[in-house]
Known about the structure:
By secondary structure, the chain is α+β, with helices and mostly antiparallel strands. It has helices at 2-17, 21-36, 64-76, 79-86, 144-180, 200-205, 218-221, 225-233, 269-306, 311-342, 353-370, 390-406, 465-475; strands at 40-46, 52-57, 90-92, 113-121, 124-133, 184-189, 194-198, 239-242, 248-256, 260-267, 349-352, 374-378, 385-388, 413-420, 424-431, 479-485, 489-497. A hairpin with a 3-residue loop joins strand 16 and strand 17. The structure holds adenosine-5'-triphosphate and magnesium ion. Adenosine-5'-triphosphate is lined by residues 333, 403-404, 407, 431, 433-436, 444, 449-452, 461-466, 490.
Amino acid sequence: xxxxxxxxxxxxxxxxxxxxxxxxxxxxxxxxxxxxxxTSGSIMLFDEKRRVTKYILQLHNISxxxxxxxxxxxxxxxxxxxxxxxxxxxxxxxxxxxxxxxNYPNQPYTTRSVxxxxxxxxxxxxxxxTIVDQEPRHFRQEDLPLLNAIAWQAAIALENAQLFYQTELxxxxxxxxxxxxxDAVIVTQGDDNKVQLLNPAARSILxxxxxxxxxxxxxxxxxxNGLLETVIAQAxxxxxxxxxxxxxMQSNVVDVxxxxxxxxxxxxxxxxxxxxxxxxxxxxxxxxxAAPLAAIKGFVELMxxxxxxxxxxxxxxxxxxxxxxxxxTLISDLQELTRLETLKNMQRxxxxxxxxxxxxxxxxxxIAEVKKIQLSLDSxxxxxxxxxxxxxxxxxxxxxxxxxxxxxxxxxxxxxxLSSNGENALIIxxxxxxxxxxxxxxxxxxxxxxxxxxxxxxxxxxxLGLSIVKTIAERHGGKIWVExxxxxxxxxxxxxxxxxxxxMGD
Length: 506
Ligand SMILES: Nc1ncnc2c1ncn2[C@@H]1O[C@H](COP(=O)(O)OP(=O)(O)OP(=O)(O)O)[C@@H](O)[C@H]1O
Ligand SMILES: [Mg+2]
């Protein structure tokens, strides 16, 4: 008994000492064979499909080719197969009297007695430990509990080793991804931004030359203090950062619980260059188109004044005039959108939304009347103020009301409402018009997107109005969204941050 406990203790020590599986199993088999004063022993391990993944023999006297052939046989018709099938160990007192034993050829000795036990974890057999002897009756049934205990310990160690290996593998994969990423990955902790992780891209961007950055405040390991302030100290999300080498990076900052502040920086210089090309093109194109269009408009007016034109000719000139006007509107919308997108600092002041809405309401009243649409305004009892550019905010509201009237038939209603949710002022424009099909809603704010198929009764427009509204909303820290049902109507919501009196300064 004492000896058995000593052996189990020794095996437990071996299993805890080493995470190298082969060494660990070799030592277990050596100790067990010595304890039983047996001839030899082996451990084999299986994968989920019961294929042998490892075969460790105490005596290395057969080639791996031979071993593989033998394994197939013993697992098929031999004792190992029996143990696997029954899920428990057993003793063969004399192999010559037990047909479960498969005697493989060219053995240096003849096995006469055997004890074997499965390595089991959570009902799955992970492996098998087998101890053999040349003499019959060397093992007795009483030996089985000890081998079971050894197999049980080995199975736990095996599971731990596999978990450790898997965790290591995942960690190595993750670290390869982070280190290989062209995006900068920075993890800092605490108010002084102690660096926990910097991948090579981050080290290059922040011009970190020291190897000794781990756990040092970020400000002490990089010279780019201005850059750091923007990105890390102020923790600005989606901030664009210009690097001294001319590149533009976009930063994303997230606070990850138990990890720290994670900052990702992505190089958007190619996109910026493309965007600039597009802006330059639109500005040149619209500028160059404006002059010939003004000339066409002027000449059409002159021709109309001539007085020698037939009715048909006058009608055709009217059509030309309409098209020219549409093109002029398109050009000015495009110019406005481009200006809005590139505008760095816009003039801002407090805007009382109640009066802005009142003015828009009054401006659209006659247009609604002509279309026999009932236009109403439900202003808020409280005075709601936002901080922004009055012309742009009016433009956004007007675009929404214009659409509501444009896409609503006679006898329909359009209502404008002002309310607040404590943080934002909400301008709600509802109509009982054409509505928008659900699948088209995601594109409604895209440039040039028009949701209604052109046809005979096409309503003129360039598909820029809502992109202008969206850009204005975003430039004011606000949001625009829509709810709509085809042939029922639409409701557009424009949220703008509320400006409270105490923020306005005294
Ligand atoms: N209130 C509405 N009801 C139904 N459809 C709408 C409404 N508002 C917008 N839409 C749909 O969304 C599309 C995009 O609107 P947007 O205002 O951007 O362009 P537009 O009205 O076609 O042209 P414009 O540039 O002259 O405003 C419209 O073409 C229309 O199909
Ligand atoms: Mg429009």
